[in-house]
Amino acid sequence: QSLDEFKKLKNSDGRFKEWLSRDVQGLLSLYEAAHMAFNGEDILDEALSFATKSLKSIGLPTQEKISPSFQKQIDFALRLPAWKCPSRSLARHSIDNFYSEDSALNQNLLTFAKLDFNMVQSFHQQELRELSK
Fold first, then answer.
1. What's the CA gap between 24 and 17, in Å, rounded?
2. Can you give the residue ranges of the Terpene synthase N-terminal domain (predicted)?
3. How far, in Å, CA of 30 to CA of 45, rounded?
């Protein structure tokens, strides 16, 4: 069962392993995945609680520093998890607010992502014009 994978993230006393709170990218992924829980999937409820608490502590003086753009991504996810956003809106928001400010990212890939978004948006606008006629 797929929930068994989450059990591997717990230690013998039933708590999530401490190293998880130091893997910020993994923690954000765990946070987003835990939002997909169905009723009765207690381990995902626990994962959500653990990930939320850990993500909120990131950036505090006692924690290691992360890039400002990644901190923005975490803050945004805590306010509005990805599953609550239409994927195209989330993509555009991420391009403009997170990835454009990260100098470590490949600028050619960022340019391609912007072009792809604009082309798809143009296609949808054209379809909407056709349908509204």
1. 14
2. 3-78
3. 11
**Crossing angle (nearest 10°) for helices 107-132 and 87-94:** 140
Q: How far is CA 30 from CA 18, 35, 59, 119, 127, in A?
A: 14, 9, 18, 32, 37
Give the burial class of 106: count Cβ atoms within 10 A of its Cβ; 0-12 exposed, 13-18 middle, 19 or more buried: exposed
Tokens representing residue 125 in the block: 């606008």
pLDDT tens track for 58-111: 866 556 678 788 888 888 899 888 888 778 778 888 888 777 777 777 888 888
Q: Considering the entire predicted model, what is its pTM?
A: 0.70
